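Quick one, probably user error.
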């Protein structure tokens, strides 16, 4: 059983602590705000929320009542870093402030076993801007959990310039052991999820700003359209399925109609067009559809969407 420390009992920290506890780990949920008279309000609020979410998971039959009770017992509250030598994984879950994160990593020096992994839950800060504050940067990386972390499967794993390959492999194994879906990506601002989300959310706000639709109708359209579809079909899968040429033409029209170059197609789309790699209809797009792969792909995607529709109507 892994012993884990989660630094920061805020919203994402308490969710991560719950995810580790549900995965069978012993968890120290640490409030770093050591000060005279500190009464642990943040930890008390974290425990109330964790207890509530566990109850909801039991009611929705995601976990059993006994498993939920066991998970709660595996989480220990702590004020101050104290002794972390028993921890083999430390997850920082502090606000998105470089100076705060760097200061915290420096405070960890000498408190951990030499092979303990140190992970930041940063959603935008590059690991290269943090690694030199860590004692043993070869054991440091970003593990970006998505809110709500105890429910959303994805965790983005982002190694820094000095991260050892074994650190990445061990982190992926730990996360998979929790039932998560870890995805390794290279160090780039916003990684995968936040980079896509920022564009999507700002465009949604512009629709309201321009009077195209209300927030309620934008949300309704997203849940019943893209949200429904992308739960079963990946973005690149859908580009191929619809056709790379469709994306190219739609991008050209939107850029011209709205007089805005942000809608222009990516260079790789133009390259795919030039090579006639348009998706299943040409045998290759971003994926390979040669032989019987096209029929297998389309059948699997239609079946997945039908099952999702059935669940939605149940």
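Nope, works fine. Designed sequence:
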């Amino acid at each position: 059983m892994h012993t884990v420390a989660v630094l920061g009992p805020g919203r994402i920290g308490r969710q991560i602590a719950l995810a580790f506890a549900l995965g069978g780990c012993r968890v120290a949920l640490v409030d770093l705000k050591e000060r005279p008279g500190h009464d642990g309000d943040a930890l008390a609020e974290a425990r109330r929320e964790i207890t509530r979410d566990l109850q909801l998971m039991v009611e929705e039959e995601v976990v059993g009542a006994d498993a939920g009770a066991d998970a709660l017992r595996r989480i220990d509250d702590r004020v101050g870093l104290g002794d972390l030598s028993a921890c083999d994984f430390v997850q920082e879950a502090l606000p998105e402030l470089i100076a705060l994160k760097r200061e915290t990593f420096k405070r960890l020096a000498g408190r951990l076993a030499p092979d303990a992994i140190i992970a930041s839950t940063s959603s935008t800060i590059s690991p290269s801007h943090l690694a030199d504050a860590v004692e043993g940067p070869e054991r440091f990386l970003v593990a970006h959990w998505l809110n709500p972390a105890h429910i959303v499967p994805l965790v983005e794993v982002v190694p820094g310039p000095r991260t050892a390959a074994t650190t990445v492999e061990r982190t992926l194994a730990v996360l998979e052991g929790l039932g998560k879906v870890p995805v390794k990506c290279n160090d780039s601002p916003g990684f995968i999820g936040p980079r896509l989300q920022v564009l999507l959310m700002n465009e949604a706000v512009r629709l309201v700003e321009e009077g195209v639709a209300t927030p309620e109708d934008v949300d309704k359209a997203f849940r019943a359209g893209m949200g429904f579809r992308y739960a079963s079909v990946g973005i690149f899968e859908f580009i191929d399925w619809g056709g790379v040429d469709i994306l190219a033409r739609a991008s050209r029209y939107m850029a011209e109609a709205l007089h805005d170059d942000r809608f222009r197609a990516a260079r790789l789309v133009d390259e795919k067009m030039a090579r006639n790699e348009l998706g299943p209809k040409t045998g290759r797009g971003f994926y390979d559809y040669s032989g019987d792969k096209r029929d297998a792909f389309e059948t699997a995607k239609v079946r997945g969407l039908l099952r999702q529709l059935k669940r939605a109507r149940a």
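The chain has a mean pLDDT of 94.
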